[in-house]
Design a protein that fits this description.
alpha+beta; 4 strands
Length: 80
């Protein structure tokens, strides 16, 4: 049995959204997706939290971050 599969990762890339943004344009709020590297146990961001204004960009960013840093990717987001 692979012991790595049963261990909790120390860090992972986490993508969530859509969230309402603080940005208003012509009275409308735009959805925002968040991408961050979080600790495996607590889920607190370990570095900068990136905010993307499109689902497609957030998926691209999170996949690139996970691949470059060799981390797991957790997606808890839906398209708007």
């Amino acid at each position: 049995m692979n012991s790595r599969a049963t261990q909790t990762p120390t860090a992972l890339v986490h993508m969530t959204g859509p969230h309402p943004s603080r940005l208003k344009l012509k009275g409308k709020r735009f959805p925002v997706w968040s991408v961050a590297i979080v600790s495996g146990g607590g889920g607190k961001p370990m570095s900068k939290v990136y905010r993307c204004f499109s689902y497609r960009r957030a998926v691209s960013l999170s996949c690139n971050m996970a691949r470059d840093r060799r981390l797991f990717l957790r997606v808890e987001a839906l398209p708007a």
